[in-house]
Amino acid sequence: MRFVTVQQKNETCVGLVDSEKKKVLLLNPTEEARTGNKIFPDTIQECIAQGDTFIDQVQSLLDWVETSGQAETLYLSLEEVTLLAPIPRPNKNIFCVGKNYVEHALELGSADDIPEHVMVFTKAPTTVTGPGAVVLNHQAVTKQLDYEGELAVIIGKKGRGIKKEEALDYVFGYTIINDVTARDLQAKHKQFFMGKSLDTTCPMGPWIVHKSLIDNPNHLHIETKVNGQVRQSSNTEKFIFPIEDIISVLSAGMTLEPGDIIATGTPAGVGKGFNPPRFLKPGDQIEIFVESIGTLTNTIEE
After folding, report:
1. What is the pLDDT of residues 39-49, one digit of tens each?
2. pTM (two decimals)
3. H-helix or E-strand containing 63?
4. Which partner from 29, 84, 178, 204 sits 20 to 30 angstroms from 154, CA to CA?
5. Are residues 181 and 67 in the same domain?
6. Which residue segment(s) compose the domain that 279 sits in?
7. Do 103 and 248 fall within a single domain?
């Protein structure tokens, strides 16, 4: 199952993208066609919080669509809707893991910069924007806007003190994030939050892939292109800290909740890592591909 949040006729709906990634089924309108009722919550966070009940209800709806003979009229083409970020407004800051690939730590520093423990910072909820959206260039405050392609984890149930061997049980699914970063603000303020939290600097999407479709999130190819040129190419098997470790560390004394987002770190090949650096320019197009999920595409404001 691939879950989306879409805008259609000035309404925001939770939907399900088909296996060919060409059509979308809007959950509540489809349920109304079946029973006359709306049973699904308005936001994906509320849907996720229902746990297995939500998945069972979606499966029941899909089964009905398949046997109803109405699939052609119930599904919409993706061109008929506007894809928003799958979680358009997170309930809290996005958790981000820094320097989770050895090569990335080395391109920004030295062997001394390879972390011994999970390194975490956050991005404000107001950073989130959707697939296809324009990322503001923020030229009034930064001259060093950079890209970071990342696999993101969506937490599915509440937990604290989660054991590593149970961590993936707390995952709902996975999506893609571009952790757009103002490198000069990072250096100026001596911390990450300001340089990571400019508006629209967390493109997310295009959908959340339910965990049942991904056998091993720690073994996925990831690739970032800028204007068609490959800049990053790696695999999540190169994580310093796999997803199980990240979830366990974050939850050691802090409660994780349904809908929480964890960006797992970016591989080598960011703009700052080149000599000379290759920072983003107005009009640049960034495409981030993650195996088993799809491609997130955004353009920098001209």
Report:
1. 999 999 999 99
2. 0.96
3. helix 52-68
4. 29
5. no
6. 94-300
7. yes
The Cα–Cα gap between 186 and 69 comes to 55
The whole-number pLDDT of residue 231 equals: 98
Q: Is 227 among the domain residues?
A: yes
Is residue 195 within 8 A of residue 183, CB to CB? The reply is yes
Structure tokens belonging to residue 17: 């993208």
CATH of residue 161: 3.90.850.10
Please give the C-alpha separations between residue 150 and each of 2, 86, 262, in angstroms, as whole numbers.
18, 15, 10
Same domain for 190 and 99:
yes
Q: Which residues of the chain, if any, have pLDDT below 50?
A: none
Residues 282, 145: contact at Cβ < 8 Å?
A: no
Residues 216 and 252 in one domain: yes
Residues 6+ apart with CB under 8 A from 221: 233, 234, 235, 289, 290, 291
> Tokens 């204007």 label which residue?
227
Three-class secondary structure of residue 51 per DSSP: coil
Considering the domain architecture, whether residues 153 and 22 belong to the same structural domain is answered as: no
Contacts of 206 (CB under 8 A, 6+ apart): 4, 83, 86, 130, 131, 176, 294, 295, 296
What is the predicted pLDDT for the residue at 179? 98
Q: What was the pLDDT predicted at 272?
A: 95
Q: Locate 262 and state its tokens.
A: 């964890």
**Residues 210 and 132 grouped into a single domain:** yes
134 and 26 in one domain?
no
Residues 239 and 207 in one domain: yes
